[in-house]
Amino acid sequence: MKYIYPFSAIVGQEEMKKGLLLNAVNPKLSGILIRGEKGTAKSTAVRALAALLPEIDVVADCPFSCDPDDITTMCMDCRQRLAAGEELPRAKRKMRVVDLPVSATEDRVVGTLDIEQAIKKGEKHFEPGVLAQANRGILYVDEVNLLDDHVVDVLLDSAAMGVNTVEREGVSFTHPAQFILVGTMNPEEGELRPQLLDRFGLCVHITGIMDPELRVEVIRRRAAFEEDPEGFTRQWEGEEEKLRRQIVAAKKLLPEVEIPEEMLYLIAKIAIEMGVDGHRADLVMMKAAKTMAALAGRTEVTRDDVHSSVNLALLHRMRRKPFQEMDIDREKLQVIMGGQKARHAHDYHHGHSHR
């Protein structure tokens, strides 16, 4: 058995962990882009997240891993089988992490339709691609900035729509493609085009940890895991289970979370004053703030939730001059957050001090 390093044992990198958890609770956030230098636990965190998430029920012999209890998201084949009165075979398994190689072509990603079969026999013969494997799982794209732009576009379309449609010579085939999209990249190797950047719901920029004590802790934990993966994983199982329960509870609570008018105005104000292009940032900030509230077990969004979502939602949407680094002006943000209503100044500082 291959052991996976536990999510809760990752040292530091709080923003990255938060971004991944938010997407796990609310896949409508359209994925996360993790920018950072090599060796900053990017892929470790993605695999750890999949191992952390609760097991899912799947139709055992379905290439799209349909949910046997949800007809609304099923593929056509599973629906037809159900309609014919067949009992669908069930299985329980961990959520999958599907890796997309940088060299992937569009056919490899979306799948292919056999046109000859369609014309000769009138049958749709579909060869599933990466998007089919990734349905109800995590699609992990390392070095997303080196992928063909068109392929990135297709991925982001599917992530936003939750379906994949393949069309060839007037024949089309559609299947569910709901996945958590995680892209990683090293900015030293070139940037993503701004319009592609904007399509990732959240973005986090991570660097190596500069605190010597924490760096030593990274070494200690990694060494302990490599020496005795079973014992190390067992030691962290309590923390993992706690986090797992938190995610399940947050998913249930999310539809009930309300956002007060005042918070919507705060979100709009932040977006305007931080000089953000377009409206996607406001929508993502709202969704992320609601998801933060659900993770904290609350049904109303607070200023802290909005503040916690700012970095993740705005980092890649700020207007920048050429060669300017991605960064958020913290002082400016503090003025905006503090200046909205003076009576909240205490809340804000309180929320800021323990982060």
UniProtKB/TrEMBL annotation:
<dbReference type="GO" id="GO:0030494">
    <property type="term" value="P:bacteriochlorophyll biosynthetic process"/>
</dbReference>
<dbReference type="InterPro" id="IPR011775">
    <property type="entry name" value="Mg_chelatase_ATPase-isu"/>
</dbReference>
<dbReference type="GO" id="GO:0005524">
    <property type="term" value="F:ATP binding"/>
</dbReference>
<dbReference type="InterPro" id="IPR041628">
    <property type="entry name" value="ChlI/MoxR_AAA_lid"/>
</dbReference>
<keyword id="KW-0077">Bacteriochlorophyll biosynthesis</keyword>
<comment type="similarity">
    <text>Belongs to the Mg-chelatase subunits D/I family.</text>
</comment>
<dbReference type="GO" id="GO:0015979">
    <property type="term" value="P:photosynthesis"/>
</dbReference>
<dbReference type="Pfam" id="PF17863">
    <property type="entry name" value="AAA_lid_2"/>
</dbReference>
<feature type="domain" description="AAA+ ATPase">
    <location>
        <begin position="28"/>
        <end position="211"/>
    </location>
</feature>
<dbReference type="GO" id="GO:0016851">
    <property type="term" value="F:magnesium chelatase activity"/>
</dbReference>
<dbReference type="Pfam" id="PF01078">
    <property type="entry name" value="Mg_chelatase"/>
</dbReference>
<keyword id="KW-0602">Photosynthesis</keyword>
<keyword id="KW-0436">Ligase</keyword>
<keyword id="KW-0547">Nucleotide-binding</keyword>
<comment type="pathway">
    <text>Porphyrin-containing compound metabolism; bacteriochlorophyll biosynthesis.</text>
</comment>
<protein>
    <recommendedName>
        <fullName>Mg-protoporphyrin IX chelatase</fullName>
        <ecNumber>6.6.1.1</ecNumber>
    </recommendedName>
</protein>
<dbReference type="InterPro" id="IPR000523">
    <property type="entry name" value="Mg_chelatse_chII-like_cat_dom"/>
</dbReference>
<dbReference type="InterPro" id="IPR003593">
    <property type="entry name" value="AAA+_ATPase"/>
</dbReference>
<dbReference type="InterPro" id="IPR045006">
    <property type="entry name" value="CHLI-like"/>
</dbReference>
<keyword id="KW-0067">ATP-binding</keyword>
<keyword id="KW-0149">Chlorophyll biosynthesis</keyword>
<dbReference type="InterPro" id="IPR027417">
    <property type="entry name" value="P-loop_NTPase"/>
</dbReference>
<comment type="function">
    <text>Involved in bacteriochlorophyll biosynthesis; introduces a magnesium ion into protoporphyrin IX to yield Mg-protoporphyrin IX.</text>
</comment>
